[in-house]
């Protein structure tokens, strides 16, 4: 089989994958939409194939076009990156059926972890703590819901089974209001999602988002590569990520890592994956949220502190050329922080701000500074894809040093032509609450206004 | 009677045109749905009124500040 790798993605992650392929000595095939003709990932790959119109639904999400590109270019492997089709079991299966190697976990593993209920069952079976939750109540049925609520514990969330991304959730603080709110949520969900089923889940007041990077070898062996704290988010999208998760006891971080490995082992997980937890900042209890069966945007944080090339490991595992790695050989040095530079306007509720990157200059990379970007000066940041312009990843002996290097790098970054969150990121990094390691997932919601003012961003 | 412009506050692509010429709309009612950077963002009527003109079509791109429709208020 050909060792040529087709990258079913765009932007910074496509360039990132090309770098690892090149280091291993493999040729690369880029795919691109009409909006990305002339973009950096297209120029850097050995070959590039146009796969459709700008909208992702007509290009990066069209399985047949991508498989056709693999066939005409003579590719033997497919790397899906993140987003787009990276968590599509259908795509992973189609890649295998086309006689190509899929760089990622088995389609069944993607499917299991993509289903909330099955993922939760798999986590429980592996001894991973999950948020206390109830059975489901279909529309019009609230019989026994108070007892279910007491078993889950208050405060709790009434959640629409068909909802997602924070839509269809209501908080309830005491048993007497529960039946009423549940009934209202059922009828709302029936109208909005065509399915009025709800369930109850424990609500964590002060939550931290902490995840563990794992790598499985597909035979029951798995290791972890420490955790990442991604509590600083807006609209459920991560903005700043870091390793070490600040302020958590070592014993807790170790227990989270061990349970994540237990899940990867129990499921004979193959490749890079991330086990996401919500940590109750008040009690320090942690609960399973979900497992992402792909490389993540923030994987670079882990690479900075371990020196490991996660993408190269993914590729070599798929090719059957990865030697078994033992936990003891994975060592963390210092701390790292990643800032996502977005084309958006912080003063206007972080609304998208596409446009021409008239000026775009970033500082020199070094042993403690890595910058992954899909764009160059003069490129158009189009409205068709996500707003990520670049990831600024800094490391240091300790957290304060990593944060200072990241802030300096952001200050030295020059952008003209579009609005970005650059100054907002600097304000976050230098905020006393963040510096103290006390940011929760409500950090931007609660302090965003103040941080926007501190950053001096006008609308 | 006055005619007012309804403007796009962000750059994006028209995903859905929700109002027609002659239609009565309420204050804050969405008349166009934009798609930009994986978000769906409504453009709403700043006041109640009657749609005088819709100036954009689906899939078309709009830039920040451009007029997407006119209302008689």
Please give the CATH class of the largest domain in chain A.
Alpha Beta
Number of domains of chain A: 3
In CATH, the homologous superfamily of chain B goes by the name RNA polymerase II/Efflux pump adaptor protein, barrel-sandwich hybrid domain
Helical run tally of chain A: 15
**Fraction of residues in helix of chain B:** under 10%
Quaternary assembly = heterodimer
Give the termini distance of chain B in whole angstroms.
Answer: 6 Å
Residue stretches of chain A low in confidence (pLDDT < 50, at least 5 long) are none
Order of helices and strands of chain B: EEEEEEEE
Number of helices in the DSSP assignment of chain B: 0
Q: Tell me the number of strands of chain A.
A: 22
Question: What descriptors fit this protein?
Answer:
heterodimer; A: 459 residues; alpha+beta; Rossmann fold; Dna Ligase, domain 1; D-amino Acid Aminotransferase, Chain A, domain 1; 3 domains; 8-stranded antiparallel β-sheet; 5-stranded parallel β-sheet; 27% strand; B: 73 residues; mainly beta; OB fold (Dihydrolipoamide Acetyltransferase, E2P); 4-stranded antiparallel β-sheet; 8 strands; elongated
Overview in brief:
The complex is a heterodimer of chains A (459) and B (73). Chain A is of the alpha+beta class and 459 residues long.
């Amino acid at each position: 089989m050909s060792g040529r790798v087709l990258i079913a993605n765009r932007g910074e992650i496509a360039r990132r994958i090309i770098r690892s392929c090149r280091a291993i000595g493999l040729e690369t095939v880029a795919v691109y939409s009409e909006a990305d003709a002339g973009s950096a990932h297209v120029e850097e790959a050995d070959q590039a194939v146009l796969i459709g119109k700008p909208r992702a639904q007509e290009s990066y999400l069209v399985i047949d076009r991508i498989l056709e590109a693999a066939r005409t270019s003579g590719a033997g492997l497919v790397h899906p990156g993140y987003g787009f089709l990276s968590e599509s079991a259908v795509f992973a299966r189609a890649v295998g059926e086309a006689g190509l190697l899929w760089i990622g976990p088995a389609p069944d593993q993607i499917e299991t972890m993509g289903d909330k209920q099955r993922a939760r069952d798999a986590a429980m079976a592996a001894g991973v703590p999950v948020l206390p939750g109830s059975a489901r109540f279909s529309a019009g049925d609230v019989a026994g819901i108070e007892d279910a609520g007491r078993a889950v514990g208050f405060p709790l969330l009434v959640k629409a089974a068909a909802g997602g991304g924070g839509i269809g959730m209501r908080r309830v603080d005491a048993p007497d209001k529960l039946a009423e709110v549940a009934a209202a949520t059922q009828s709302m969900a029936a109208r909005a999602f065509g399915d009025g089923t709800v369930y109850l889940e424990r609500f964590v007041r002060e939550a931290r988002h902490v995840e563990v990077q794992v790598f499985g070898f597909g035979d029951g062996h798995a290791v972890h590569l420490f955790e990442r704290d991604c509590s600083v988010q807006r609209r459920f999208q991560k903005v700043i990520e870091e390793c070490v998760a600040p302020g958590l006891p070592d014993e807790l971080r170790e227990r989270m890592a061990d349970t994540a490995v237990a899940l990867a082992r129990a499921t004979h997980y193959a490749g890079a994956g991330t086990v996401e937890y919500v940590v109750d900042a008040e009690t320090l209890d942690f609960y399973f949220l979900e497992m992402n069966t792909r490389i993540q945007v923030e994987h670079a944080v882990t690479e900075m502190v371990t020196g490991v090339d996660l993408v190269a490991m993914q590729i070599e595992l798929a090719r059957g050329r990865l030697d078994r790695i033992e936990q003891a050989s994975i060592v963390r040095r210092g701390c790292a922080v990643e800032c996502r530079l977005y084309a958006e306007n912080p003063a206007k509720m972080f609304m998208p701000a596409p446009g021409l990157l008239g000026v775009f200059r970033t500082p020199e990379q070094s042993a403690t500074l890595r910058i992954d970007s899909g764009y160059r000066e003069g490129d158009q940041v189009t409205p068709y894809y996500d707003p990520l312009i670049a990831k600024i990843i800094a490391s240091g002996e300790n957290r304060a040093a990593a944060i200072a290097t990241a802030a300096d790098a952001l200050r030295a970054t020059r952008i003209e032509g579009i609005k970005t969150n650059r100054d907002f990121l600097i304000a976050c990094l230098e905020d006393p609450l963040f510096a103290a390691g006390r940011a929760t997932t409500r950090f931007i919601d609660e302090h965003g206004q103040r941080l926007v003012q501190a950053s001096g961003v006008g609308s | 009677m006055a005619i007012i412009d309804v403007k796009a506050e962000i750059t994006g692509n028209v995903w859905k045109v929700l109002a027609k010429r002659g239609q009565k709309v309420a204050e804050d009612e969405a008349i166009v749905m934009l798609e930009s950077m994986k978000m769906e963002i409504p453009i709403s009527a700043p006041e109640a009124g009657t749609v005088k003109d819709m100036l954009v079509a689906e899939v078309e791109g709009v830039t920040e500040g451009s007029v997407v429709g006119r209302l008689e208020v």
